[in-house]
Amino acid sequence: MPTIHIEIPAPLQALADDAATLPASGATVGAALADLATRHEMLVQRILTRGGAMREHVNLFLDDRDIRADHGLDTPLREGSVLLVVPSVAGG
């Protein structure tokens, strides 16, 4: 099972023991987030809905590619990949 690094944005780092990067394992993005949830459930609740879907206001980039343009949470992982969590920014 591939191990990846998940980069956490500053506003969510408090939910990740103040870590900027966390390891996770899984065959897909969804599986890696499920693995991460075993250690940082509150963090993953900010990324996924109760039903396990990506929250509308959060974008996930796997090695600089938006996973929504790939296979979403079913996007397969490769060893050493980087998953970047990017919350949408609102303002005017």
What does this structure look like?
- With 92 residues, the chain is an alpha+beta fold.
- The chain has one domain: Ubiquitin-like (UB roll) (Roll), CATH 3.10.20.30.
- 17% of the residues lie in helices and 25% in strands.
- The protein is built from two helices and five strands.
- A five-stranded mixed sheet has the order 2-1-5-3-4, covered by helices on one side.
- Strand 3 (58-62) and strand 4 (65-66) form a beta hairpin.
- Helix 1 runs antiparallel to helix 2 (41-47).
- The longest helix has 9 residues, at 29-37.
- The protein is globular and about 25 Å long.
Summarize the structure.
The chain is an alpha+beta fold. The protein is built from two helices and five strands; from the N terminus they run ββααβββ.
Task: Please specify the SSE layout and strand pairing.
Elements: E1 3-7, E2 21-25, H1 29-37, H2 41-47, E3 58-62, E4 65-66, E5 82-87
Parallel strand pairs: 1-5
Antiparallel strand pairs: 1-2, 3-4, 3-5
Helix pairs in contact: 1-2
Summary tags:
five-stranded mixed sheet; 92 residues; alpha+beta; Ubiquitin-like (UB roll); 25% strand
Mean pLDDT, to the nearest integer, reads 95
Major beta sheet summary: 5 strands, mixed
Shape: globular
Strand runs, count: 5
Helical amount among residues, as a percent range? 10-25%
Order of helices and strands: EEHHEEE
The secondary-structure class comes to: alpha+beta
The strands making up the biggest β-sheet line up spatially as: 2-1-5-3-4
Assembly level: single chain
Query: What is the rounded distance between the termini?
Result: 43 Å
The CATH superfamily turns out to be Beta-grasp domain
Q: DSSP strand (E) fraction?
A: 25-35%
Please, how many helices? 2
In total, how many domains does the architecture comprise? 1
CATH architecture: Roll
- Low-pLDDT stretches: none
